[in-house]
Structure of Short-chain dehydrogenase:
Amino acid sequence: MASVGYMRPSVMAQVFPSAPKFTEANLPDLAGKVYIITGANAGVGKELARILFEKNASVYMACRSEAKCQAAIDEIKKSAKSETGRLEYIHIDLGDLASVKPAAESFLARETQLHALFNNAGVMLPPASQTATVQGYDVQLGTNSVAPFLLTQLLTPVLKSTASATKEPTRVVWVSSMAAELYSEKYGIDMSNLRGKTYVRAASDPMTLYGNSKAAAYLHSVEYARRHRDDNIISVAANPGNLDSDLYRTVGGPGQGKEASAPADQDAGLGFVQKMSMKVFRRFMLHPPVYGAYTELFSGLSPEVTLEKSGAWVGPWGRFFPMRKDVAENAKPKSEGGLGGAEAFWDWSVEQVKPFM
């Protein structure tokens, strides 16, 4: 889909976005607000945590490595203009569904409210030696879709109760990618390829699998919005933008030194042309991670993101865009003239996470 995807005006507008219109300058005092950000120890997640912390929010940083998370916390606090917010570590490994419920329980033991959940963590083009999660899913689908779905299900009761108590909508932000539009298969997710517990196929293009996993986040977002609108929960999927973040660690380029290639044990299995294209893309077209934080900030806190906008596709640096037509049609239920793919994928996801609820 990539060859034609770049021709769409909305995609070009996401590649060359206008200036951010919702930043830390637009935020009120967030004292008393509570947020969870997965993958908050680096990149976009860390920038978002910094912004919310400096506005006095309580931010729970759900990360795999305590040492890396603590280093990020120390760095944020050292550079912060204000220290009246809170930064808390929660252990989670999105590559292992068994770690998700303990993470949710750790949060719920400490807080009674949650104002927004940012499903920010993700993996792109993992090393060819690390293609599956602990439970056997393709590592991109498992990390970017199945585990965030489980975490969101476990935290939905507190999102509902917070919305009820505050009389204000709470939010779930499903961080996706432009790859959902450019690289996913037709309809975003091909249910015929969801064989049992895995999405791994014998000769899969890693970029297609990545695009599928990010289209899956969009499908989850749309279906969650449909199911929880009456609970006063807003759900949006967001393409944070083209960012020079830790996601590119397996392709080499500027973030690893001017002419660096990925270490041999981190090779993602891309072909030569794909690798060169990715390096050129990384060198000339990527933006600092803080811009991605602005996209997520808009999605999670902007007053423009109303309940009527729930289910929308948000792009850089905080604007609404149309999703690729076939994926958008698949997201709609059959009762609304769509193909019902989001509902079918939701049902499949429910079955996958049942043992871990």
Strands lie at 34-38, 58-63, 86-91, 116-119, 170-175, 233-238, 313-315, 319-321. The CA atoms of residues 117 and 152 lie 8 Å apart. DSSP finds twelve helices and eight strands in the chain.
